[in-house]
């Protein structure tokens, strides 16, 4: 076995340590709450039942969403985004970046993309040998390009992206509910244990005091751990709710996507309600369930910037400077998408995308000097 392969295996195994740590904490919290608190400490049967029902509800939802976040395979760019074999061979033989960009630029004319690199070039992953769709990024930890990548999360040992972003938000939400519920219900027993009776038996203790049993350590720790996790999760959860409202990924919050008109952090924002629907879907009854309901296919995303600020039918004729090297072209003045001919754009997502701003773009590739866009307003 090659040393690099062994190293990779070790890295992959070690990457599970944070997940195992969380799983052990969750298992201990279950034991501490159910056995030590509810069975050994709480005297009232009615209180026990109510606590156990709500505890198990939050526990199931938390574990379910955590499981889905961990085990949802990140989505990768589809084969349409791979260079055709001939282009790929030419790209690999070519040493000049300008010529390589020209190959990419031609290949991208048939792809539904609106974003470019900061220099206006086609976003291409040399590692995966794929043209990156909008919002797609290469994750060095997973060693793959991930659609709508948000970040790589060590606590789930997975990339958070298009396939599991909803699950990740729900995981944060339910872990917060789980910790809040534990902290709130444990609090009174936490206080009682500070003033505990030194006798081992509850019968010999004064009223409203708990005996000095081993349960006290579990209950005291339970409160500390739940309160600590509450504080850390709350900030992360609030931040991601804000991102969902803005339809922005963590990566885009730090580095705005570049459109034809320049970089724009709000480039994919469609308004608060639609932004929420992009992640959680149209049907509210599924919002709180960790089942996949996000809109679209992860390859194309609606944006109000394309077609840009058009209210009524307009025809634009542009000179794409075909003879100039593609790398020098700052940002394509038109969408590189031949939407009427691109089957990727005939799906539901694109219907949403274009629905409000119907567009019929005809983009002749670089050998033609003229590009014509015919844009119709919503009728
Ligand atoms: Zn990649
Ligand atoms: Zn990753």
Automatic annotation (TrEMBL):
<dbReference type="Pfam" id="PF01529">
    <property type="entry name" value="DHHC"/>
</dbReference>
<keyword id="KW-1133">Transmembrane helix</keyword>
<feature type="transmembrane region" description="Helical">
    <location>
        <begin position="217"/>
        <end position="242"/>
    </location>
</feature>
<feature type="compositionally biased region" description="Low complexity">
    <location>
        <begin position="325"/>
        <end position="339"/>
    </location>
</feature>
<feature type="transmembrane region" description="Helical">
    <location>
        <begin position="15"/>
        <end position="42"/>
    </location>
</feature>
<dbReference type="GO" id="GO:0019706">
    <property type="term" value="F:protein-cysteine S-palmitoyltransferase activity"/>
</dbReference>
<keyword id="KW-0012">Acyltransferase</keyword>
<feature type="domain" description="Palmitoyltransferase DHHC">
    <location>
        <begin position="123"/>
        <end position="254"/>
    </location>
</feature>
<keyword id="KW-0808">Transferase</keyword>
<protein>
    <recommendedName>
        <fullName>Palmitoyltransferase</fullName>
        <ecNumber>2.3.1.225</ecNumber>
    </recommendedName>
</protein>
<feature type="region of interest" description="Disordered">
    <location>
        <begin position="355"/>
        <end position="379"/>
    </location>
</feature>
<comment type="similarity">
    <text>Belongs to the DHHC palmitoyltransferase family.</text>
</comment>
<feature type="compositionally biased region" description="Low complexity">
    <location>
        <begin position="368"/>
        <end position="379"/>
    </location>
</feature>
<keyword id="KW-0812">Transmembrane</keyword>
<keyword id="KW-0472">Membrane</keyword>
<dbReference type="InterPro" id="IPR001594">
    <property type="entry name" value="Palmitoyltrfase_DHHC"/>
</dbReference>
<dbReference type="GO" id="GO:0016020">
    <property type="term" value="C:membrane"/>
</dbReference>
<feature type="region of interest" description="Disordered">
    <location>
        <begin position="321"/>
        <end position="341"/>
    </location>
</feature>
<dbReference type="InterPro" id="IPR039859">
    <property type="entry name" value="PFA4/ZDH16/20/ERF2-like"/>
</dbReference>
<feature type="transmembrane region" description="Helical">
    <location>
        <begin position="167"/>
        <end position="191"/>
    </location>
</feature>
<feature type="transmembrane region" description="Helical">
    <location>
        <begin position="49"/>
        <end position="67"/>
    </location>
</feature>
